[in-house]
Amino acid sequence: MEGERIDHEAMMKAISEGDVEKIIEHIDHAVKTAGVDHVGLGSDFDGATMPLGLEDASKLPKITDALLKKGYSEADIEKILRATFCG
3-state DSSP call for residue 44? Predict the structure, then answer.
């Protein structure tokens, strides 16, 4: 329990709202490198400390909005996010 608290505190110091943009940068790089058909977003909302702004699945629309602003099509975003829901 104490180890989890220490990990959580360390992560909270290291992460910020800017991390959502970092995730978008990583997605964008992966798409440019491997192609949109080979990129899927995954998370561990059960036990992991997620970046601020992405604490739970209800925040995933932030990623959708950011990808739309970067110029991704709805079809490509669906491909990226489908892996989140379909495994």
Answer: coil
> Is pLDDT larger for residue 87 or for residue 44?
44
What the block records as the tokens of 8 is: 């959580």
Statement: the pTM of the whole predicted model exceeds 0.85: no
The answer to whether 53 touches 62, Cβ cutoff 8 Å, is yes
User: What whole-number distance in Å separates Cα of residue 35 and Cα of residue 40?
Assistant: 11
**Per-residue tokens: 37:** 């058909």
Return the closest-CA partner of residue 17 out of 68, 55, 61, 56: 55
Confidence (pLDDT) at 53 = 74
The answer to whether 19 and 52 are in contact (CB under 8 A) is yes
